[in-house]
UniProtKB/TrEMBL annotation:
Organism for this UniProt entry: Lactiplantibacillus modestisalitolerans
PANTHER family, alphabetized: HTH GNTR-TYPE DOMAIN-CONTAINING PROTEIN, MANNOSYL-D-GLYCERATE TRANSPORT/METABOLISM SYSTEM REPRESSOR MNGR-RELATED
Domain of life, per lineage: Bacteria
Name of the molecule in the record: GntR family transcriptional regulator
Cited Gene3D superfamilies: Chorismate lyase-like, Winged helix-like DNA-binding domain superfamily/Winged helix DNA-binding domain
Pfam families recorded: GntR, UTRA
SUPFAM superfamilies: Chorismate lyase-like (SSF64288), Winged helix' DNA-binding domain (SSF46785)
Annotated CDD domains: WHTH_GntR
């Protein structure tokens, strides 16, 4: 229940319903008709995503993570059912959507048996009519038995949550600078060997099973990365 409330709180923040600070716990209990304990656990999830600042004696304030002339990627925002990594309202152009069997290298990278079937999704993603990233993602069919074309063209994470009731429990993320391969350059219409920021992510659900692996190359201009760190010793 508290995860569902957390998802609603994130949506309310993103939609501008809460612009400066969250309502009080009592007000949120009334709004969502849940207990104080549920509200506190939901707020803590949202706080872990870096969307809130805790001010002792005053409550929770909405964190502004926007920078002038920058597009901010929130790398803290994957502790709930779905991934809020990218900006909202991205438009996808699907280049490849098929089922493959993992070879030795890919299976080792994913930590799954060789020849296990998986969905492969390769898509270009656009924001404000400008190329944002190239994304290659793999979903083991042992975890995601069916993935719809509609989901691949919109939000894969929303589909997985709605269809299977699972989502990200934890993630391993690796940021690096990458030189575009000939294939990547061709797909994006950019120069072979040009240097861009890449993110390799392995996402796991609650029993530590692999949910997906993705390789994303960001090409949108003026990107900024946001991390949220909590000093637990001071809480």
């Amino acid at each position: 229940m508290y995860r569902e409330i957390a998802t609603k709180l994130v949506a309310a923040i993103q939609n501008g319903e809460f612009k400066v600070k969250l309502p009080t716990e009592a007000q949120l209990m009334e709004r969502y008709q849940v207990s104080r304990n549920t509200i506190r656990k939901a707020i803590d999830l949202v706080y872990q995503q870096g969307l809130l600042r805790r001010v002792q004696g005053s409550g929770y304030y909405i964190t502004s993570i926007q920078l002038e002339h920058k597009t901010v990627v929130n790398l803290s925002a994957r502790s709930m059912f779905t991934s809020n990594l990218h900006p909202r309202n991205l438009v996808s152009k699907v280049l490849t959507f098929d089922t493959i069997k993992g070879d030795t290298d890919l299976s080792r990278q994913l930590g799954i048996p060789v020849d296990e079937e998986m969905y492969r999704v390769v898509r270009l993603r656009y924001w404000h009519d400008q190329l944002y990233c190239l994304e290659k993602a793999y979903y083991p069919r042992s975890v995601v038995p069916y993935l719809s074309t509609e989901a691949v063209n919109s939000s894969i994470w929303d589909f997985i949550h709605d269809a299977y009731g699972i989502g990200i429990a934890n993630s391993d993320d690796y940021l690096s600078l990458t030189n575009l391969s000939a294939e990547e350059a061709l797909l994006m219409g950019l120069d072979h060997g040009a240097t861009y920021l890449a993110l390799d992510s392995s996402n796991y659900y609650k029993n530590n099973g692999l949910l997906d692996f993705s390789h994303t190359v960001f090409v949108y201009p003026d990107l900024a990365l946001y991390f949220h760190t909590t000093n637990l010793a001071n809480n």
